[in-house]
Amino acid sequence: MTALEYTSLIQSVALSLRPVAMNLTRDADDAKDLVQETLLKALSNREKFKSGTNIKAWLYTIMRNTFINNYNKITKRTSSIDTSEYLQYLNINQNYTAQNKGAASFVMNDINKAIANLSEEHRKPFMMYYIGYKYHEIADQLNLPIGTVKNRIHIARKELKLMLEVYR
């Protein structure tokens, strides 16, 4: 089959590709792009077409495979990493180029200083809660109402948040 015969054969079937492309993509512009890409692939792979076979079925196969490949590319691009091995890298602060023990010790020193700067009435319930005591246990040990304990822990958190604003 000559190139001219092959091209005219493809042109005769090209109009029937559009509804199928529209069914796959559900968007007019994407359907036009899919048909165009299908025809380009068919024309550039003329030597792979065997005379006597169904040209329409061959073009539909090219179109379907092209659509699937494009869909897979898009979903790979938009999917997030969900393996636990890489989860530690998702929320890395972009300002730091490397994390090391020196930076961590500076952070811990700042946290300890901020906790030390809390008033005694806020620091004590906060530290007890941090260690693992429940609200009612803290209230019993400090002889305070549970609402007061919750309020003091809340205030301590707010003050620490303000004091450690640099680490946001």
TrEMBL record:
This protein's superkingdom? Bacteria
Q: Which UniProt keywords apply?
A: Sigma factor, Transcription, Transcription regulation
User: Which parts of the sequence belong to the RNA polymerase sigma-70 region domain?
Assistant: 10-73
User: What Gene3D superfamilies has UniProt attached to this entry?
Assistant: 1.10.1740.10, Winged helix-like DNA-binding domain superfamily/Winged helix DNA-binding domain
Transmembrane ranges, per UniProt, are: none
User: Which stretches make up the RNA polymerase sigma factor 70 region 4 type domain?
Assistant: 110-160
- InterPro entries given in the database record: RNA_pol_sigma-70-like, RNA_pol_sigma-70_dom, RNA_pol_sigma70_r2, RNA_pol_sigma70_r4_t2, RNA_pol_sigma_r2, RNA_pol_sigma_r3/r4-like, WH-like_DNA-bd_sf
Family per UniProt?
Belongs to the sigma-70 factor family. ECF subfamily.
Q: Which NCBIfam families match?
A: sigma70-ECF
What name has this protein been given in UniProt? RNA polymerase sigma factor
Source organism per entry reads Pontibacter silvestris
